[in-house]
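Assemble and predict.
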Amino acid sequence: MIDVAILGLLDDDELHGYELRKRLGELLGSRLAVSYGSLYPALNRLEAAGHVKAVTGLPARAPASPMSGSLAGELAAYRARRRATTDQGGRRSGGRGKKVYGVTDGGRRRLHELLVDPDVSDDRAFAVRVAFCHHLSRSERIELFERRRAELAQRLDQRRRTANPSGRVGPYLRSLLERDTEALAADVAWLDRLLAAERADPHPDSAVGHDPGGHT
Amino acid sequence: MIDVAILGLLDDDELHGYELRKRLGELLGSRLAVSYGSLYPALNRLEAAGHVKAVTGLPARAPASPMSGSLAGELAAYRARRRATTDQGGRRSGGRGKKVYGVTDGGRRRLHELLVDPDVSDDRAFAVRVAFCHHLSRSERIELFERRRAELAQRLDQRRRTANPSGRVGPYLRSLLERDTEALAADVAWLDRLLAAERADPHPDSAVGHDPGGHT
DNA sequence: GAGCGATGTATCGAGTCGATATGTCGTAGG
DNA sequence: CCTACGACATATCGACTCGATACATCGCTC
């Protein structure tokens, strides 16, 4: 799950951990933003696997969000990094290092691999995969969406089968189950919309490559 | 989360771990059913805290599900338990013990305490609490639902504020966020329905006590 | 120049998951 | 008969995640 998010974000921009987490919060809603206790170990894992590497340079693009005066902060961080990079002895040395990560070719391959993974049972993981599914070809996207749709449909009629064997459920539990079924149905409808859009859009070819920009 | 589910289920029926897990699966959909790696440590925790106790007797009611021939199994398990209960030396002794748990008075107090907890940010935990909120008084239920509603409303307009600063989100991410917003709105509407039903129902008194049964 | 809040990296304890081990029981099949 | 298999049942392991926290620096204000 978190691997997809990291690789996907790093493919757009070279980032450090803190910024990575902020973007994930904006992307998916702050509730399912990963914690540092997941993020940093995950970065170390990915670095050890060769999927990302620390570039230790300035990020490719400045955040460019006008509501925070972080431009001066960026410069200061740069100065601080220049001072701090020599310190790398003890683990608890701390200090600023602002390790900026970038994705490698292996990481891009890994991202694609994770995106086409047949397992679509994890809800959060699927959401993240949709967020970055522009890395897939059209047919791969359709594959992904249809597999997910099948998963949800399966949950639905499993729900209907185990619904109320003796009718003995309290009103609150009943209401809860109904709401859940509605949410499930809405999700299926959403996937159907996505699939319809996918098949209607007249672009049978370029999918994984960057769109060169058709206007302005 | 899991504590509420265990205490709530055990308050209806005395059960052992395996059956507990099955019921949780039926109750909340098999996807968010807890694993044994969570269930058994949780049972031990609750037993150590004095909230549940092993009764080591036959379960109060047989499963009574006609589709599985578990009646013979029940008898056999009884015989097996009689043979196995003496063995309690080694940790890895294994075998059948079929430890049947029941909830204590302290456990019931704990359940109530967990149900009125002001923290409603955990989605799964809230669902479980709704499933067992018949243990609450009407005013406590309204409190619970309204707090949850406020939480969701806060998420909604936080979403709307951070929506699209520069409009630069891909179509898939946009669709994902829209779907999420819709789900959030549907959840708020569901809570409003629950609240309306709560206030319309003409039963201002009996809520926490057991209904003695008005029919048959 | 001290305090404070944002930035930033990193770890800890607790809890959860999925897989697996271990063992019993009933039944099907050779 | 016995052997394999699957349901029942308890329990643990390793990997992972979370929330909290520690630690350190920067820029700002007073």
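Chain B has eight helices and three strands.
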